[in-house]
Amino acid sequence: MEQTISFVATGDSFITRRLPSTTSESFVELTNLIKSADARLTNLEITTHNFEGYPGQASGGTWAITSPLALRDIKAYGFNLLPWANNHTLDYLYGGLEATERYINEYEFVHAGVGKNLADASAPRYLETPAGRVALIAATSSFHETWIAGDQRNDMSGRPGINPLRHKSVHKISKEKLETLKEIADTVDINAVTKMSIKEGFVVEKKDGKFEFGQYVFAEGSPEGKETSPDPRDMKRILKSISEAKRQADYVVVSIHAHEMQGEDKSVPAEFLKTFARECIDGGADSIVGHGPHVLRGIEIYNGRPIFYSLGNFIFQNETVTHLPADFYEKYGLGNDHTVADGLDTRTENNTKGFGVNEKIWDSIVPVWKMQGDKLTEVKLYPIELGYKQPRYKIGWPTLVKTDRILKDLQELSEPFGTKIDIKDGVGTIVLD
To answer: What is the spatial order of strands in the sheet that 125-129 belongs to?
Structure first.
């Protein structure tokens, strides 16, 4: 009989405080669950260093930094796989990236999604377990454009950065609206530079029927709306990594950090993410682990493989960073006399808006799934809460809870994917064919 291997995954770990206890009942219960699996993954959504990098002009929202000792606490939970390609990877530029990687290596995590060049950032990384060899590939679709790792040439070095999943967007509108948009473009000269570049030969004129309105692309079509698709360059590169990993490991896990949503609903993934996940599985991946929007998204079982479109948060402490650069304060009209607490109070309008008042940010699940050879045999879903309504200096630690509330929300989110979840004694079980 083929051996069974088990996996556990979580969403984002944005950790800025040290663990208050490793002996509490709630911590032991959760770590026992995590450590019961062979491959154990959490997304590291923070830089870990002692300010060895300069704060970038752009950040993922909050300039994310914590002490390298936080990695000891991540280790205490039992994780052995760390994807860390996300919208905070270069909050402290290359110095922060290089220092974070150095400390991650010191704590002996298998990590992926970031590297000294594009090939390195795209490469599979391997975890050896008694039940089989597991490959991890990580990418992000949410990033500043300057964070993309650069390709290596034989005459020029590459550039450190993240493994990107870019996407293309086309806004479909009626013929009448498209003509109006063209008139507006001519009136305000929004395409003047592009037109001149075409005349001078620096830009090739597009002849695909699409119309560029500044940085946005429009086309005549019905139904009206926004269509998104993965960038073929990135899709091809990531599929190549999956192909490599599939021939070098028993199982392949793909991690994707993605904020992009359908319309204005964070809980619904953008169309290109669904395309990406399914193509990855068609290409040989055994599971897709998504995170990024800080809320749960639905689960799909596609060709006998799980796609977790978002596992929300595991540790979320974005409002207990100790330092923020001048750019943060200037954004909110504050100056040098103001402190981190002043900045956070201003951003949240004294804790009346933002993440702190959205209960769904602080609810999540920890899935545990098993495979026997090539067959998915079990997917269990364990709800966690992160302390909604606690003060910002206490909130953000996960606790296992026996509740149907979170699982019922997940049932509803997963229904469009044809996924059925049975709930019993506060634990969910996905019904497999």
So the answer is: 125-129, 132-140, 251-257, 287-291, 305-308, 299-302
Please state at what angle helix 70-77 crosses helix 25-35, rounded to 10 degrees: 70
Domain borders along the chain are 4-163+233-318+354-430, 175-220
Report the C-alpha gap between 231 and 165 in whole angstroms.
Answer: 7
- The number of residues making up the chain comes to 433
Tens digits of residue pLDDT in 255-297: 999 999 999 999 999 999 999 999 999 999 999 999 999 999 9
29 within 8 A of 79, measured Cβ to Cβ: no
Give the span between the Cα atoms of 310 and 365, in whole angstroms: 10
Average pLDDT score over residue span 146-150: 97
Mean pLDDT of 421-426: 96
Query: How many C-beta neighbours within 10 Å does residue 69 have?
Result: 13
If DSSP codes are grouped into helix, strand and coil, which group holds residue 410?
Answer: helix
Q: Which amino acid is at 127?
A: L
Alpha-carbon distance 309 to 258, whole Å? 9
Measured from the Cβ of residue 430, the count of other Cβ atoms closer than 10 Å reads 20
Ramachandran region of residue 374, left (φ > 0), alpha (ψ -120 to 50) or beta? alpha
Q: What is the CATH number of domain 4-163+233-318+354-430?
A: 3.60.21
Cβ atoms of 16 and 70 closer than 8 Å = yes
- How many C-beta atoms surround the C-beta of residue 385 within 10 A? 17
Position 1 scores a pLDDT of 66
Q: Tokens for 185?
A: 């473009």
Is it the case that residue 206 has pLDDT exceeding 90? Answer: no
Residue 94 scores a pLDDT above 80: yes
Percent of the chain having pLDDT more than 70?
A: 100
Q: What is the DSSP letter of 101?
A: H
Contact 140, 106 (CB under 8 A): no
